[in-house]
Amino acid sequence: MSNLIFSVADILDHPGRRRDIVVAAPVPEAGVGLARLSDKPVEAELCAQSVVEGVLVTGRLWGSAGADCARCARPVPLDIVLELCELFVEPGHELADEAYELTGTDIDLEPVFRDALTLSLPLNPLCDSACKGLCPHCGRDLNEGECSCHPESSDLRWAPLEELKVKLSQASGEGST
Ligand SMILES: [Zn+2]
Ligand SMILES: [Zn+2]
Description:
Blueprint: E1 5-7, E2 18-25, E3 31-32, E4 35-37, E5 42-50, E6 54-68, E7 75-89, E8 100-101, E9 106-108, H1 109-120, H2 149-155, H3 159-176
Parallel strand pairs: 7-8
Antiparallel strand pairs: 1-9, 2-5, 3-4, 4-6, 5-6, 6-7
The protein binds zinc ion (ZN) (2 copies).
């Protein structure tokens, strides 16, 4: 059972009536890919207003999330501030596809928060736009300095020549014995 359910019985069907909703509650299961919401509660200062179609919820939401850098896997803290403007309508209403549904005379803000937070999280989080990432060979964090793989990888171009040298030296070695 969501603890983000609020009764709007006092304003429903009285277009123009409004009431404030101030919330601080965790929103479970908000996350996408490398980013997810922190365990800290989400805070919101909202206004629920009765409109002809149902109830319009507007206001601001604050949350914090964490992500792993897509290049180096370092933790990336994310502070989220969102403006919300969402409509709740009776089930079966012609706007039901684009809106959230009232549950009797209640609104459940949990799916609203989860959808908005999930959409706000970056799909490709980076600790810094200049992050150098990890060396694909040794896994070293290249933000902390170069690794020793680079000379080796450039040596690969000379590998056939090295092999030839070894063969030649073996051949000449065999010849001398
Ligand atoms: Zn990074
Ligand atoms: Zn390396």
